[in-house]
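Ticket #4471: structure export looks truncated?
Reporter: QA, pipeline team
Priority: medium

Steps to reproduce: submit the single chain below to the structure queue and open the exported record.
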Amino acid sequence: MLSTLLRRAATHGTIQAVAKDTPRIERVCSWFVDNARPLPWRSTSPWGVLVSEFMLQQTPVSRVEPVWRAWMDRWPEPGDLAGVSSGEAVRAWGRLGYPRRALRLHATAVAITHKHGGQVPRDENQLRALPGVGEYTAAAVRAFAFGENAVVLDVNVRRVISRAWSGIEEPPAHLTATERALAAGLAQSAPDASLWAAASMELGAVVCTKKVPQCPACPVARTCAWRRAGSPALDKAPRRQPRFEGSDRQARGNILRVLRDSDVPLPTSTVLAGVADFDQGERAVNSLLDDGLIVRVGRRLALPS
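Actual output as written to the record:
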């Protein structure tokens, strides 16, 4: 998709402003044309875009890229993934984290295969009816896979808009009506809304970052409302991330790792050998069973078949 976006950008030339923010939007888009990372899902199929959006949720690009490549080599079309068990999807997900995404992606592949002739739909309502596809993912697929004028609002886009246009260091925890209206107005002002979506997301990911923004490299630094205000910090208490070491989440990951490495069901005692606390192990097993990430086979445990 990146090559398509860049070709579009090259045809724009000098565009008459359709709104007061068009020049700034154009600067961000021009920056993107010159600096975009060559990420593999930017020149792939709609299915490849959808897979990337599932994988990139709360997971950095560096961890996603090798798994995405292996996934697409193995299952280049939705029907390929739909033809294997959901357990194979969990196995291939590896250590990306939040493995329920693998189950939802498998269920989405099945739905696309049986309800949409194996083709990722471009209609918003049809996309949002797929398992695990919400407002953001549907908008991202419409913009990046099909070039639709969708308003894409991930945390990076929201940060760019919050700083450059609203003068606030970080956007609120939840989308507000004011934020949505501003984002929609910017997308309407853009000569190409899908290009603007990709460019603003990239700017937030690599320049206008959360902790150490690289303002000298920003194409709109001189007009950034946050910088003009003196880069004020939000008056808020720092959030502590839950500790991973020794957590139930770590225990779940250990159990899944043992089962991914086995082609046969294993006794519960074997599965829990790497979990120090028995009660924690029991909680982790029960939660994985409830999520459908593992199954009981007699008195043994396995990935879904």
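Status: closed, not a bug. The export was complete when the record was re-opened. Leaving a note from the reviewer for reference: The two ends are 34 Å apart (CA to CA).
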